[in-house]
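[Meeting: bench + compute handoff]

Bench side (C.D.) handed over the final construct sequence. Compute side (W.E.) agreed to return the predicted structure before the next meeting so the bench team could plan truncations. Sequence as handed over:
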Amino acid sequence: MNAPMAQGASVSTDMRDDRVLMFTRVVAVGVVAILLLAVLALYLFPDFTDQNFAWTIKPRMMAMAIGAGYLMGAYYFARVLTVRRWHHVAAGFLAITAFTIGMAAATIVHWDRFHPGDWHFYLWAVTYAITPLLVPFIWWRNQRYDPGVPEANDLEVPRILRMVAGLAGVGGLIAGVLIFVQPQLAKSIWPWSLTDLTARILAGWLMLPAIGGLYLSRESRWSAWRVLFETVTVGALFFMIALFFSWSDLSQTNLLTWVVLLGLVGTIVALPVAIMFFERRRHSMGTSTSG
């Protein structure tokens, strides 16, 4: 199997028990709480961001899309609380780091678009001042306990799938950087209307799958992929629901509208099928080994 991502501060081999540190779990609780507040404001009440969020988001589709992303994040950090092995969730932390850097950068560039004096703004500002440093620190501290070897009955992810993840990551990274530098690019082609701020926010969201794909391209253990597959499935499902409730915000003559729709359908179908396929193979491997 491929070598795992570089370890954090070195520890003795017998300490690499794949534990999830208590500090990691405590931070995850706080993150879930903050994300659920964002979901409440953006996904459930997308028409009132002028009152209930750090900045006003138009149209409804954009607010619900971000809300679906935060709901995806809440699921991921809930899984950080429930998994027993660190490497099951390690792949998400550097991806989230890139995302938080994008959010912080967009905030600085568009400071005048936010709601100064509102507690929602202070929560947003503090969150994205801290997390670009906190999230990679957590990864660095916890990564040193990853033994870097497959767990019992683990499977090796096919090389072709890892290559696809890596290529998708490179593509997403290029797109995210281009959109952040030239937001007019996204504004000219996107299915719903964007501002410079929402275009740069979109660029930050693109960093999640980009860095996640690059990370997974070097990770051959299926057990390190599963939680991310679950997380992306949750995000795609709620994004699809957002499309249904905000369909009038999209241009039906824009080809990208249908590309996004088909991509969501494909994700919602393909990832659960992949999870079932790999998990059945793991179960069969365990059964044959015990027999």
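W.E. noted at the follow-up: The CA atoms of residues 72 and 235 lie 5 Å apart. C.D. will use this when planning the next construct.
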